[in-house]
């Protein structure tokens, strides 16, 4: 029997939203939902490729496109012969958008069918205006979910056996500014840890480093149930580029917060987004971003080669030649890869708590290092002795 399929592109927030949609799709429906991404022009291209591939694989299915790319370019997707319907971001979590004639109420998410970890949306939208980013146009102003329903959702997920929750959103560190009393992300994390004591592992999605306040800093560095892994939205390591991006931090701010974090909790592993070849970026400016890999001890690098996104101010700035952009992205990936490999070597001989994925042959440490474990291991948390590294992931055996 053909079952509903959801193809998810882009961010962790899309993963969380895909699971919400999965919870209310009819089990016997021949439907493919493409949850699209618009963060770069390449992401939109990949969305179109996914749609065409879905039609080839399931010629009789109803194909629905939603997500950020569908939000900002609805007509262009509606014009694709493979597409049966386009649903905007705000409507995609309403079952009536998929089944207008049905009177079905959405189920609460009971389990994440594709992941051992569970992603929980705490916030959506963004109030900032980075010059390279189209996402505020896709998702609107920042909106936070009150703590009480979030705690209830997390309790339900933990009851279903999930041992790690990832808090996700578009601009997670802006959490609470629109809620009564303006609670911060730190307040939310405190409440989750207090009210869900049976949750072993809590992880935060991408953070804006300039918004890590004292309360959140103390929790990150002092709470063992909050995983020692932070992914920071740094984007560049040159002050003039950061200014032209309309970022709110300087290079020194980024280095300072990482130094403070690691001095208080040395085991914290730092991940970061960095854009290569932003408009006007000179070789000297790029060198500052390249040096940021070492200066911020970035072991989980997420490198984006810049591509102009129509409708953003950066698309109107003087562009860097595409071959130069590709070369700079390659050099950044090589620098991050070398630092990642060297970091993995330091973990050989240690004992790590690993959350084994549903496949039963791999999982993540608290610091987000990937670990290969003996095939058919029981999914869930297990203590693992690290015995080897191939430069990309670790090998471990039950300790």
Explain what you see.
By secondary structure, the chain is α/β, with parallel strands linked by helices. The chain is built from 13 helices and 17 strands. The chain has a 5-stranded mixed beta barrel. Helix 7 crosses helix 8, helix 8 crosses helix 9 and helix 12 runs parallel beside helix 13. It is globular and about 55 Å long.
List the quaternary state of the chains.
single chain
Strand order, sheet with most strands: 13-14-15-17-16
Low-confidence stretches: 103-111
| Straight-line N-to-C gap | 42 Å
Rg over CA atoms:
21 Å
Fraction of residues in helices? Answer: 25-40%
Query: Which strand-content bin applies to the residues?
Result: 15-25%
Structural class: alpha/beta
Mean pLDDT: 92
Q: Report the sheet with the most strands, covering strand number, pairing sense and barrel closure.
A: 5 strands, mixed, barrel
Number of helices: 13
Number of strands: 17
Structural descriptors:
17 strands, 13 helices, alpha/beta, 399 residues, five-stranded mixed beta barrel
């Amino acid at each position: 029997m053909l079952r509903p399929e959801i193809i998810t592109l882009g961010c962790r927030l899309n993963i969380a939203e895909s699971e919400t949609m999965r919870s209310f799709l009819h089990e016997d429906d021949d439907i493919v939902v493409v949850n699209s991404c618009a963060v770069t022009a390449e992401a939109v291209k990949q969305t179109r490729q996914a749609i065409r591939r879905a039609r080839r694989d399931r010629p009789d299915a109803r194909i629905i496109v939603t997500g950020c790319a569908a939000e900002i370019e609805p007509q262009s997707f509606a014009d694709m012969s493979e597409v049966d319907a386009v649903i905007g971001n705000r409507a995609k979590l309403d079952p009536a958008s998929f089944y207008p004639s049905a009177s079905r109420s959405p189920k609460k998410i009971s389990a994440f069918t594709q992941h051992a970890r569970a992603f929980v949306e705490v916030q959506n939208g963004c109030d900032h205006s980075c010059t390279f980013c189209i996402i505020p146009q896709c998702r609107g102003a920042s909106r936070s979910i009150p703590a009480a329903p979030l705690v209830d959702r997390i309790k339900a997920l933990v009851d279903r056996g999930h041992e790690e929750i990832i808090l996700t959103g578009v601009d997670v560190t802006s959490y609470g500014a629109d809620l009564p009393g303006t609670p911060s992300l730190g307040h939310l994390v405190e409440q989750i840890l207090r009210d869900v004591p049976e949750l072993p592992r809590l992880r935060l999605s991408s953070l804006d480093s300039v918004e890590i306040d004292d309360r959140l800093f103390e929790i990150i560095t002092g709470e063992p149930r909050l995983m020692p892994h932070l992914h920071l939205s740094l984007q560049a390591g040159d002050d003039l580029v950061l200014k032209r991006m309309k970022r709110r931090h300087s290079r020194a701010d980024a280095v300072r917060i990482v130094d403070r974090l690691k001095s208080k909790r040395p085991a914290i592993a730092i991940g970061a987004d960095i854009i290569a070849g932003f408009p006007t970026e000179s070789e000297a400016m790029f060198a500052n971003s390249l040096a940021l890999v070492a200066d911020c001890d970035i072991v989980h690098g997420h490198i984006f080669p810049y591509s102009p996104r129509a409708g953003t101010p950066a698309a109107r700035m003087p562009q860097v030649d595409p071959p130069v952009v590709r070369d700079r992205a390659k050099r950044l990936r090589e620098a991050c890869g070398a630092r990642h490999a060297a970091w993995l070597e330091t973990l050989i001989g240690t004992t790590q708590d690993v959350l084994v994925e549903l496949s039963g042959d791999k999982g993540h440490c608290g610091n987000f290092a990937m670990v290969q474990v003996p095939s058919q291991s029981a999914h869930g948390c297990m203590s693992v002795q690290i015995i080897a590294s191939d430069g990309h992931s670790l090998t471990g055996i039950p300790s």
